[in-house]
Amino acid sequence: MTLEDLRHDIDKIDTRILTLLNERMERALLTRRFKTAPEDKDREQALLERIRHASHNLVNPEFATTLYTEILSESKRLQENNPLTIGFQGEHGAFSEMAALAYNAAIVTIPCREFIDVFEGVESAIFTFGIVPVENTLGGLVEAVNAYLINTNLKIVAAVNLPVRHCLVAPQGADHRELRFVWSHSQALTQCRNFILRNHLEPIPYYDTAGAARAIAENQPKDVAAISSRLAAELYGLDIIKEDVQDFKNNRTRFFVLAKDATEQPGDKCSIVFTAGDKAGSLFAVLEVFAKAGINLTRIESIPDKPGTYAIFIDLEGSAEDPRVSEALEKASNITKGYRLLGCYREVRTTL
């Protein structure tokens, strides 16, 4: 073991400490939804006593309690400021988080394990907003998300169209010639299939692109890389072996921002959903309404709903405040079953 080895280990530990500290602050921030006041003196005192008794060996108990007093103070400051929060699926550094920050650079992003956790977090007011991917130019519909959209009472308040630029990342100092495996979400592996084959890497599916990056940062395998965003590489202190490893440059994902209430700002797009037993007949009737009104449709998708029925999603250009659009929406609602206006909103198209 050398000085350089020890410093490398210290750097890794520091990264983990900061990651865990951020996670603790996120949880502390979310607790404000269940508390009447930021301060809970009995709990704070019990925590400090536990920290004091748990300190041993090199860590002085006074140092540990002073450190945690500062952590508690920062937690209360965050709760008092009550910032806007947005839930996203994946770990920090996920493309969904990048889309959330494109929507609002000052918002606090909170990772969720599954898409349903995002929906439930917004419905229960744990999060102010949620953000979910709806469709990708290469992979098509994100069916799980669209299935949740059929029945949710949440409103679409914005959309973000984000370029997806994949990077091959590895632990710092890794020799790219020793790489044998690559971890990432199955969709990312598919989108980078040709690159993976050319470089003789074995793809290993992981639940999330950023999660794969975090895992290799924590475990430091010598022969494993991950495919993730540049943001994930920066967050977890990884080397970027190569950027833009996706097979096609035109790789974009569209995200919906969800909230309990509709936005009060005028939008330039509207989204509706309705159910149909006779998909072709029902769809034709609705398309005819918008065609006669001269309204441009930007998305028409259907997914199976209940046995024998389909949920049909339509996005259209225009504001619900425009009489021409509002009249067409009303006509569509009168000739369909299960009609819902998911939201009228503005769409942000980003470039990275």
Helix content: 40-55%
* Major sheet: 10 strands, mixed
**CATH superfamily membership of the largest domain, which one?**
Periplasmic binding protein-like II
The top-level CATH class of the largest domain is: Alpha Beta
Q: Any guess at the CATH architecture of the largest domain?
A: 3-Layer(aba) Sandwich
Question: For the CA atoms, what is the radius of gyration?
Answer: 24 Å
Task: Give a description of the structure.
With 352 residues, this protein is α/β, with parallel strands linked by helices. It has three domains: 3-81, Up-down Bundle (Chorismate Mutase Domain, subunit A); 85-163 and 253-349, Periplasmic binding protein-like II (D-Maltodextrin-Binding Protein, domain 2, 3-Layer(aba) Sandwich), CATH 3.40.190.10; 167-243, 3-Layer(aba) Sandwich (D-Maltodextrin-Binding Protein, domain 2), CATH 3.40.190.10. 41% of the residues lie in helices and 27% in strands. Strands 1, 2, 3, 4, 5, 11, 12, 13, 14 and 15 form a ten-stranded mixed beta sheet that branches. A five-stranded mixed beta sheet has the order 8-7-9-6-10. A hairpin with a 5-residue loop joins strand 13 (297-304) and strand 14 (310-317). Helix 1 (3-30) crosses helix 3, helix 2 (41-54) packs antiparallel against helix 3 (61-81) and helix 11 packs antiparallel against helix 12. The two termini are 41 Å apart.
